[in-house]
Amino acid sequence: MSELKRVAKTLIGYIKRPDLYPELGRKIIKNIFNRQSAFKGKEKTNLWASKIAISQENAIENLFKMPFESFKQKFSVDFLEAEKAQNNCPIKMGGAGALELLYSACEFTQAKSVVETGVAYGWSSFASLQSLEKRNGTLYSSDMPYLGQDGDQFVGCIVPEKLRKNWKLFRHADRESLPKILKETQKIDVVHYDSDKSYEGMKWAYETLYAPLKIGGVFISDDINDNSAFQDFCESKNIQPTVVDFEGKYVGIFVK
Ligand SMILES: C[S@@+](CC[C@H](N)C(=O)[O-])C[C@H]1O[C@@H](n2cnc3c(N)ncnc32)[C@H](O)[C@@H]1O
């Protein structure tokens, strides 16, 4: 699809969804006045992260005192089905992150309430739900519909049917979804941030999600190398995070 066609399709998608007008307004303002904000502080953070980064395996052992276990092998039957569902999905979305880190964080906290931003195919949702199901806990997810690809119906398409009873998916932008989610859960065991990668978007969501995270809860953010929002946030709160080198990108994690 040409770029012009994609932009036109996205715009039409927004026009059909009045509940997404606030996000459309924010995107227009960002694109006119604040285009560079996505990369603010990127160089500084990459230097910082590269000096302290460790592997996912080491992070799980250091933080949670648990051995690393491959998620794919542990849940091999469901994983295979999930891969099939991804291959059959007609639209392209963001791929899986550090699933073992997320699953271990849920096990470590014996999580009953997990909040995640960014679902796409649903790999991270699948990982949290595998753990939450054991305690009949709930995963609250926020994801913007894929308007340019008519993709709303496919968000979370790889999540096994049997895990969906423990899942609440909010199909709006984070700025609308998160206040709704926080009305339903005020004591969060694990936060996983993986949606809007602009500096302002990350800063806002980190502040919003940190307060209701329980003491002893785990905070994880993907793609902290895109800008310095995660580093700046941790410095402002005097938090010493662990940085995980995952497939050439950095994931930030700390226990509150
Ligand atoms: C990298 S993907 C998420 C991948 C997922 N966590 C996984 O591990 O499979 C990022 C997702 O964030 C969503 N997203 C981007 N900006 C958003 C926003 N402002 N509010 C809500 N979701 C957003 C996109 O629609 C996309 O599905």
Please give a structural write-up.
The chain has 256 residues and is of the alpha/beta class. The protein has one domain (3-255): Rossmann fold. It has eleven helices and seven strands. The chain has helices spanning 3-15, 21-33, 42-52, 56-64, 71-74, 76-88, 99-109, 123-132, 174-184, 199-210, 229-236; strands spanning 113-117, 138-142, 167-170, 188-193, 213-221, 242-246, 249-255. The protein has a seven-stranded mixed β-sheet, sandwiched between helices. The N and C termini lie far apart (44 Å). The model has no long low-confidence stretch (mean pLDDT 94). The structure holds S-adenosylmethionine. S-adenosylmethionine is lined by residues 93-94, 96-97, 117-124, 142-144, 146, 173-174, 194-196, 201. InterPro entries: SAM-dependent_MTases_sf (IPR029063).
Helix-strand blueprint:
Layout: H1 3-15, H2 21-33, H3 42-52, H4 56-64, H5 71-74, H6 76-88, H7 99-109, E1 113-117, H8 123-132, E2 138-142, E3 167-170, H9 174-184, E4 188-193, H10 199-210, E5 213-221, H11 229-236, E6 242-246, E7 249-255
Parallel strand pairs: 1-2, 1-4, 2-3, 4-5
Antiparallel strand pairs: 5-7, 6-7
Helix pairs in contact: 4-7, 7-8
The structure holds S-adenosylmethionine.
S-adenosylmethionine (SAM) binds next to helix 8.
